[in-house]
Amino acid sequence: MNNSSLPPGLGEQAAKAVDSSHATHADAAGCATDRATNASDSTNATNATSATSATSATSATKGSNATSAKPRRALWPFALGGVAIALLIVGIVPRLHASADLTEQTQAQSMLTVSVVKPRPAPSVNELLLPGSVTPFAEASIYARTSGYLAHWNTDIGAQVKSGQVLATIEAPDLDAQLRQARADEATAQANFDYAKTTAQRWQEMLKTQSVAQQDADTKVSDMQARGAMLASAQANVAHLAELVSYEKITAPFDGVITARNVDVGALVTAGGTPGTAGMSGELFHIQQNGVLRVFVDVPQNDAPYVTPDTGVYLSAQQYPGRRIPAKVARSTGSIDPSSRTLRVEVDVDNKDGALMPGAYTQVHLQLQSTTPALDLPVSALLFRPDGVTVAVVDSHGRAVLKTVHIGRDFGTHVEITTGLAATDRVIDNPSDSLSTGQMVQIMPAMHG
Fold first, then answer.
1. Vertex 233, ends 230 and 235: CA angle to 5°?
2. 437 and 385 Cβ atoms separated by less than 8 Å
3. Which of 5, 123, 221, 364 is deepest in the core (most CB within 10 A)?
4. How many degrees, rounded to 5, is the angle at CA 37 between CA 32 and CA 38?
5. Of 41-50, 179-188, 426-435, minimum mean pLDDT range
6. What is the pLDDT of residues 113-140, one digit of tens each?
7. Residue 215 gets which letter from DSSP?
8. What band does 31 get if pLDDT is binned at 50, 70 and 90?
9. What burial letters (b/e) apply to 374-406, b meaning 16+ CB within 10 Å?
10. What is the three-state SS of 77-104?
């Protein structure tokens, strides 16, 4: 086909298109002929196939250029469709995933995630640590009981002394003179009494023979009794002055160590004080008994019932790191101080080695024994509500349930729960203040590793 009215280029393209169409129909006819020949007679199949192949080769040679261009144009829509589908998948699939994640996250946030702890048995022995101050088992301020001048002192600070040992001597010559006078008066009274006694005895003998009157005999007896009373008075005065003279020697009241000496030789001392020296208490020496020391501690009211004489106790001091100094509970007041709500307990410690000094700071470790230990929980699981101390537990349906509990012993970071909690409860740790009964919760998986 040749149309002279068309432009040269378009005419050639039209001719090529017609030839390509003829070639296509020839191929289809060849294929049909092959199928018919194979069905009717297998003997002529070889010749028909050869003829068809020759025809196809001729047609393919004529329309080779047109045939190679058409499949490329036919594949373009499919390629564009694949690209569109791929872009659609790339844009929509992430959105679908993001929507699913958002829905899951929203559901997870709507349910509170909590961590739970299981109550464990509380320890039967709890160590209570309290501060204490070391005091001597006995101490005394020694004053002068007799007025006079200090003749000399025998011991200074730090000296270990025994009971009755002389610490200093006071000179009191006027007191010595008074004692001598009193003894002389005593001797006079003794002589007068002896004479009156002898006279009364004689008059009693004469009364038996009616040699004297009864009244005269009674007078002599009364005079003897009066002389006896005067003798007793003189003897008491001598004893008083002798006691004062004995105080001229200042002695230690018990075994201990001298911790203060506030007087020197030649100082005028008076009974109970030092005259003319303002601000001085008149204390001559101060003595402390440090063989056994006392430590007083104030036990809180909650722990007071567990402190008994059998309670184990030891001391620790900063100057002896890691050392346990054995001690014992000696006694307690047996009553709670209403101002501090504590029990005053005395702990005695043997200090023969002199490791501790009176006045030092120490820590007292009391081993409190409980016969009926309850359950133990960390303090982070407690809620303090107006109706009391509360804990939140998770029931079998995943709901929070608030329970009011009672606290027993306080262990610092954990406490003993005496009532309101079961050993099988799952207690929420660090619960929110807004947590309420019936709220759905999700238990956080336990962390391993």
1. 110
2. no
3. 364
4. 100
5. 41-50
6. 889 999 998 888 888 899 999 999 999 9
7. H
8. very low
9. bbbbeeebbbeeeeebbbbbbeeeeebbbbebe
10. HHHHHHHHHHHHHHHHHHHHHHHHHHHH
User: Can you tell me whether residue 409 is helix, strand or coil?
Assistant: strand
Give the phi and the psi of residue 264 in degrees, each rounded to 5.
Answer: -135, 170
Residue 445 sits at φ, ψ, to 5 deg, of -60, 145
Question: How distant, in Å, are the alpha carbons of 411, 419, 436 from that of 389?
Answer: 16, 11, 14
| For residues 174-202, average pLDDT | 93
State the residue for tokens 């100082």.
267
d(CA 67, CA 59): 11
pLDDT of 335 over the 50 cut? yes
Q: Indicate if the pLDDT at residue 409 is higher than 60.
A: yes
Among residues 13, 375, 299, 7, the alpha carbon closest in space to that of 129 is found at 299
CA-closest candidate to residue 290, choices 350, 250, 364: 350
Task: Identify the CA nearest to 380 among candidates 111, 122, 114, 110.
Answer: 114
Give 126-144 as a DSSP string: EEEEEEEEEEEEEEEEEE-
**pLDDT at residue number 391:** 93
Task: Determine contact, residues 124/408, Cβ cutoff 8 Å.
Answer: no
Query: Residue 119 burial (CB < 10 Å; 0-12/13-18/19+)?
Result: buried
Rounded CA gap, 427 and 391, in Å? 7
Residue 49, phi then psi, degrees to nearest 5: -65, -40
Q: Are strands 441-443 and 112-117 parallel, antiparallel or unpaired?
A: parallel
Q: Which pLDDT score, from 0 to 100, does residue 73 have? A: 62
Alpha-carbon span 51 to 22, nearest angstrom: 17
**Helix (H/G/I), strand (E/B), else coil: 111:** coil
Q: How many CA atoms lie within 13 A of 324 on its CB side?
A: 8
DSSP string, 306-349: G--TT-EEEEEETTEEEEEEE-EEEEEEEEEETTTTEEEEEEEE
Confirm if 351 and 293 have CB atoms less than 8 A apart. Answer: yes
pLDDT at 221 over 70: yes
Q: In which region does residue 164 sit, left (phi positive, over 0), alpha (psi from -120 to 50) or beta (all else)? A: left
Under the banding of pLDDT at 50, 70 and 90, the label for residue 179 is: very high
pLDDT at 364: 95
How many CA within 13 A on the CB side of residue 75?
Answer: 5
